[in-house]
Amino acid sequence: MKALTAIVVIALFYCHTVSAQDIGIANPSIEGPPRAGNVPYPWLRFRSPDTQPGFYGISLAPSDGKTYAGFINGHRWEEGILQLLPTPMQSGTTYQLSFDLAAPVHYDTLLLCSGALAVYGSFNETDPGDLLWQSGTFVHPFWQRYTATISPKKNYPFLVLMPYLPGSCPGNGYAGALLDNISPTLAEVPQLSLQVQPTCAGKKTGAVKAIASGGKPPYSYSWDSTTLKSDYISGLGTGSFTVTVTGANGATVRATAYITDYSLRVQAVPDLPFCHGDANGSFTLKPATGVPPYHFQWQGGSFQPDSVISGLRAGTYNFAVQDAVGCSMSSTATLNEPDALQITTVKKHDVSCTETMDGKIQLSINGGTRPYSFSLQSASWQPDSVWAGLDAGSYRYDVKDVNGCEVSGSQEIIRYIRECAVFMPNAFSPNGDGVNDIFRARVNDDVKDFRLAVYSRWGEMVFETRDPEMGWDGTIRGRKAQLEVFAWVLTYTDSHQQARKQTGSVTLIR
């Protein structure tokens, strides 16, 4: 039989599946009395095929037995033979049918343009039904073997064989065929899967395994590129490798595997140490290519199946990987670590005066892994780095990051024994000498709702702030103000919750 050819592009794994069941064909050699206009039982006629040889100038000896079928197809006439199968063809399955064909030059008084045969599936004996296969044109006057591979989309009970008129024939022309030695079954085609192992670049480590099922076992295997007859070939470089699988019923299927090469690529995925200086980091090696199983080596040690190395400090590490076919690679990987958790600045505010409790500690943090948590005097952790409303005393603070890395410190808050009040200077000299350069309030109280505004003699507001620690630098819209007396208005709520308003003037001296 001529093999079914399936060209299959395969990466790492490919399955090409065909399935069917053997269906018997009665009187496959079309044996019976030679007769014009009819065919022997159990074949049925479509129009008037002939049981040859001996009629209409046909004298070719049979290829099998004593008789065969002859028929024509043209613009005014078509003939064929059909048979009711013992089991209908099954939709979605694949069958193979072989037969001998020859092309008569003349049929009675007709000059035939070529030979051509088609296979159809039908639901009745009066309609050719649906096309399943065509031979293409042929002109050989003697017998040649053909194999039709059909995959019906419906469950056809009738098998129909008849010539068809190819496009190369003129509109008033005729084609014909002589048909003999049909295979005794519509043979099941084996299912075929190919497992392909690529080759390591520069080596021959490729392999292909053919996996056959269905059809009629046992199966035989033939590879175009080797004399091996097994289902598995190895030691292959890049290229295409085609296998023909033949079932015990003679049905065949072909598939081609394409072996590509690869270079082993491995990603080193880090898990960083929790804290600066810790030895609890790790790497996991994840191959992106190659043939498993893999073995892994760290720092020149022995190869192991474990892809994880742990207990690491920050640093650079050497590693190597081998796959199952000996493809290997080596590289380095750098394990980073968080910066050391540090308290970069501590900003404090002492208790302002005798009658208040407005001490404050504020931390600025760097390093570690955000978010941070803060605790004062071993109290509960909070996300805010500021503690306010503190009395005089010594305070311990602790900071930790999301990984539990910690750093600690302490700060002394003192109380100023003095009147609780807000004082304003009456002059300042913004000349950059570091002395009295800023006009600001001296706040010796725990105030709220603070607002300081400065006005020119024309009533224009030249400065405003709501921060008690901020002051005026003597500029107006970015330009130095001239020597002048400026008015100011200060409002706030004091520590006794009394609203206060103070006014006055300040002289700018340069």
Layout of secondary structure:
Elements: E1 4-6, E2 13-16, E3 23-24, E4 44-46, E5 50-52, E6 68-74, E7 80-84, E8 95-102, E9 106-107, E10 110-111, E11 114-115, E12 118-122, E13 130-134, E14 144-150, E15 158-162, E16 174-180, E17 185-188, E18 191-197, E19 199-200, E20 206-213, E21 220-223, E22 232-236, E23 239-246, E24 252-259, E25 261-262, E26 266-271, E27 281-287, E28 295-298, E29 308-312, E30 315-322, E31 328-335, E32 342-349, E33 359-366, E34 373-376, E35 386-390, E36 393-400, E37 406-413, E38 421-423, E39 427-428, E40 442-444, E41 448-455, E42 461-465, E43 475-476, E44 479-480, E45 484-493, E46 499-508
Parallel strand pairs: 1-24, 11-16, 19-25, 39-46
Antiparallel strand pairs: 2-18, 3-17, 4-7, 5-6, 6-16, 7-15, 8-14, 8-16, 8-17, 9-10, 12-13, 12-15, 18-20, 20-22, 21-23, 23-24, 26-27, 27-29, 28-30, 30-31, 32-33, 33-35, 34-36, 36-37, 38-40, 41-42, 41-45, 43-44, 45-46
Strand residues, percent:
over 45%
The residue-averaged pLDDT reads 93
Separate helix tally: 0
Which stretches are poorly predicted, pLDDT < 50 over at least 5 residues? Answer: 1-20
Q: Terminal Cα separation, in Å?
A: 112 Å
**Sheet having the most strands:** 8 strands, mixed
Structural class: mainly beta
Rg over alpha carbons: 49 Å
Tell the overall outline: elongated
Query: In which range does the helix fraction lie?
Result: under 10%
Compute the number of strand runs.
46
